[in-house]
């Protein structure tokens, strides 16, 4: 019961963060869950928790979702999840973390160089989904490829939430096919589900109070902080392996 209460509280706080800024909560929740959950079930349980959190976010922000972007993104995600993951397994995770972190920083501050807003949604979905199953950091990666400058902040958060539902759904299906049973943790998942709904409602209220220009600035710096964390983790792992 203590575990349910602690992780439900963590889910409420982190889903509030994500609903207000678009990203960040998933990374924080993963770090907290790593202290309390057995390593063997950590990633699939976190994927299920994020699926519920983003589903709740989509319910709250459903009228702002850009479905013209999401439909081809979904198709690309299904294909990418099937095709890219086996190829990505050949890349050492620490190297992938460093490259991914640097890519996010570049995409955040110099997106014009990469012309990310011009990437077809199907390509964005395929590439990010395939990489997310291997490298994690799904939220910042997808946020970096969305055409954010063309959308209002509610559209950014709502569409990003729907993209996360797709990717975490694929992740849960993938782990379920590997005989990972999440139903054994139904009390924990129920608590997290209710907590994320409350957190998303709270975060949505905060989102409407943040001016458009401040939202963009906060989002860019949050993306940068998460990307630098990825680079640090990758470099630390490479140094440790070298020793």
TrEMBL record:
Q: Where in the cell is it found?
A: Cell membrane; Membrane
A Pfam family annotated for this chain is TauE
Keywords of the record: Cell membrane, Membrane, Signal, Transmembrane, Transmembrane helix
- Signal peptide range equals 1-19
Keyword field contains Cytoplasm: no
Highest taxon of source: Bacteria
Q: Which residues cross the membrane?
A: 64-84, 90-109, 121-143, 185-207, 219-241
Membrane topology, as annotated, equals: Multi-pass membrane protein
Query: Which family would the database say this protein is a member of?
Result: Belongs to the 4-toluene sulfonate uptake permease (TSUP) (TC 2.A.102) family.
User: Which named protein is this?
Assistant: Probable membrane transporter protein
């Amino acid at each position: 019961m203590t575990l349910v209460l602690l992780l439900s509280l963590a889910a409420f706080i982190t889903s509030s963060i994500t609903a207000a800024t678009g990203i960040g909560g998933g990374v924080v929740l993963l770090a907290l869950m790593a202290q309390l959950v057995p390593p063997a079930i950590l990633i699939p349980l976190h994927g299920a928790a994020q699926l519920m959190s983003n589903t709740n976010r989509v319910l709250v922000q459903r009228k702002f979702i850009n479905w013209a972007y999401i439909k081809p993104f979904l198709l690309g995600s299904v294909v990418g999840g099937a095709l890219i993951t086996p190829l990505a397994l050949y890349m050492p995770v620490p190297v992938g973390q460093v490259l991914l972190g640097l890519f996010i920083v570049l995409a955040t501050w110099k997106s014009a160089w990469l012309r990310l807003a011009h990437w077809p949604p199907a390509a964005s979905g395929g590439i990010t989904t395939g990489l997310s199953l291997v490298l994690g950091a799904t939220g910042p990666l997808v946020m970096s490829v969305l055409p954010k400058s063309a959308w209002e902040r509610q559209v950014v958060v709502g569409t990003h939430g729907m993209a996360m539902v797709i990717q975490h759904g694929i992740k849960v299906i993938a782990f379920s096919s590997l005989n990972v049973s999440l139903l054994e943790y139904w009390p924990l998942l129920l608590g997290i589900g209710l907590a994320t709904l409350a957190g998303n409602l709270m975060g949505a209220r905060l989102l409407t109070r943040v001016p458009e220009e401040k939202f963009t600035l906060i989002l860019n710096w949050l993306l940068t902080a998460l990307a630098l964390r990825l680079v640090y983790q990758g470099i630390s792992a490479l140094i440790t392996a070298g020793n």
